[in-house]
Amino acid sequence: MRALPLTHYHAPRSRSTSILWLFEELGQPPHERIDLSLAKGDHKTPWYMAINPMGKVPTIVHGETVITESAAIALYLADLFPQAGLAPAIGDTARGTYLRWMIFNQAAVEPAVTDLALLREPGSPAMMSYGTYDATIDALSGALAKGPYILGDTFSAADVIVGAGIRWMLMFKLLPERREFTSYAERLLARPALQRAIATDKALLAALQA
What we know:
- The chain is an alpha+beta fold.
- It folds into two domains: 6-85 and 193-209, 3-Layer(aba) Sandwich (Glutaredoxin), CATH 3.40.30.10; 94-191, Glutathione S-transferase Yfyf (Class Pi), Chain A, domain 2, CATH 1.20.1050.
- 50% of the residues lie in helices and 8% in strands.
- The chain has helices at 16-25, 46-49, 70-80, 94-117, 133-145, 157-171, 179-189, 192-209; strands at 6-10, 32-35, 59-62, 65-68.
- A four-stranded mixed sheet has the order 2-1-3-4, covered by helices on one side.
- Strand 1 (6-10), helix 1 (16-25) and strand 2 form a beta-alpha-beta unit.
- The protein starts with 5 loop residues before the first strand and ends with a helix.
């Protein structure tokens, strides 16, 4: 059976970099990467908006199926290429932890940090998906306390999504510099796959700006 074509729509220095990193961790399975320039507005052109009406990256297209949102893409790709060992199998209780923190990153961490960055006064904790910023950050710190990765000794796609966010938040001083966060970011940066993704993004950005 012939494999369906797989395309990654990417822009450097965006959330899509986490998916660029994930493809490296997956061993670069066959796929096409289409590079977009955010500065030139490629992501808001009619042809791209027809693929992703939000006009955002990343997006992947597998056959005729469009998948958007970084966590959803990571979950999809890790299951699509199980030989890479980046997702616990269905029935493995570790999958519950894997799914928990992958979704927590999108549903709690990102909104909490966005409100902080924009100096927005959050609503009542009972109304907010994240409760409070402090509670969210304490929970995230607790998830990493036992380490070295979210699933203990096993690196997974959850570390790509959560780790990409933590590295960005530390860079912009949106997380307290707790040892759980800084040592985790250091471990991730030591991974050859992330180093290759960073180098690719740097070269791509220079090419798009030329």
